[in-house]
Amino acid sequence: MSNTAVITDSTCDLESATVVRSKLHQLFALAITYPDSEWVAAVKAGELAENLMGLLGQLDENLLREIDRNALCDSGADETALAVEYTRLFDVGGGDSLVSLYGGHHHGGRTTAMEEVLRFYHHFGLQLDHSRNELPDHLISELEFLHFMTFQEARIEARGQDASHYQRGQKDFIERQIGRWFPKLRGKLQDQQPLRYYAVLFELLGRFLQHEQQRLSPIFVRAAG
What is the Cα–Cα distance from 199 to 210, expressed in whole angstroms? Predict the structure, then answer.
């Protein structure tokens, strides 16, 4: 997705909770990409576990309750195990993967889902990066959109301005899109008894998305009241 921001803006407080959320959306998107040899090395070295657990802990220690940290360092029996598992679960050709990463396979149909997601992207001035393979309703695309939205929220907050436009956009997007279908994806993933890495990674992502939804909803309840 073009215009997706990396958090380097000097106006942002790098310790703010909103920046932490933006980094988490970005890190989860990265963790769900195909695990090449460089990524497997980072997993085995504990870099993913350290970064992910550290950010989630900054946000809310309860997000880490009863989580097996070592699972995020477990790349399987050999160097290719994580890649083989990724292909088994998510990357079978012809749209017949055991656990589809596309929202439209879990609710509403592909065409409707893609049209709805694209309306969100275009409303906030974003276009898909056609040099990449992900379609608009892919889990990675939707996480990168939320990374962009939280980055914009953090930047506007740092300037002392009203960020409710981006907060409301996040709330609506999670409720209508990723938060609506991700639990169904997780249920299908659990049925496949995945490697511990994917089981724990998707458990943490589910907790984080639920945390985000709970964070955003009261803002607009108060505003409406």
Answer: 17
Residue 44 near residue 76, CB atoms below 8 Å: no
Model-wide pTM > 0.85: yes
Residue 63 DSSP class: G
Structure-block tokens of residue 146: 């939320």
The whole-angstrom separation of Cα 122 and Cα 195 is 37
DSSP of 158-218, one letter per residue?
HTT---HHHHHHHHHHHHHTHHHHHHHHHHHHHHT---HHHHHHHHHHHHHHHHHHHHHHH
Among 102, 81, 99, 78, which residue's Cα sits nearest to residue 90?
A: 99
**If you write DSSP's letter for every residue of 91-119 in order, what string do you get?**
--GGG--SS--BGGGTTT-HHHHHHHHHH
Asked if residue 112 lies in contact with residue 119, where contact means CB atoms within 8 angstroms, the answer is no
Judge whether 134 and 183 are in contact, CB under 8 Å: no
Q: Which amino acid is at 176?
A: R
| pLDDT tens digit sequence for 63-116 | 999 999 999 998 877 889 999 999 999 986 555 689 999 999 998 888 898 999
